[in-house]
Amino acid sequence: MDGADFYYLKTQKPLIATIITFFIVSIWHLPALLAGWKNEPLWPWLILSLAIAIVHSWFFFKSRGNLLVVILFHACFDAQYSFLSKFIPNVSNTPFHQGWTYIILYCLLSLSIIFLTKGKLGYNKANLNLKEYFGEPEQ
Question: What is the pLDDT of residues 95-118, one digit of tens each?
């Protein structure tokens, strides 16, 4: 996480920190998407990625900062495309080609997380000491 993410987490605004992280991840993937990576349409990918970023953050905070939980979720999320495309006829190896239903379900999940956690995404100051986890930023 960068300094802005740390600041917003420290001020207990994990949703803003998640959106900042989403923009960073989007910029990282943008060249591949524009080059035709998996033939992903840009807008559906962005919508799904924001929803997934919220779910990733929720896993991170609920597991008390355990990155292995987030990594396993990400791996399972990516592996499902290969699984579905091998065993279900006419299913592509990309999330968008599995349909808007798939994207809408993840959006509903992320909106539920935001609503149920009141925007804190499972962040609990008592369970995750950010100074220990990220180190105190230099001033």
Answer: 555 567 778 889 999 999 999 999
Interval 58-69: pLDDT, tens = 998 888 888 899
Give the closest residue to 123 by CA, choosing from 10, 21, 30, 3.
Answer: 10
Taking the model in full, what pTM does it have? 0.78
| Amino acid letter for position 109 | L
Distance CA 104, CA 109 (A): 9
Number of structural domains in the chain: 1
Q: Is the separation of the CB atoms in 123 and 16 below 8 Å?
A: no
85: tokens are 């495309």
Residue 6: partners with Cβ closer than 8 Å, 6 or more residues away: 17, 130, 134, 137
CA distance 118 to 94: 32
Domain that holds residue 71: 3-124
Question: Among 134, 101, 110, which Cα is nearest to 15's?
Answer: 110
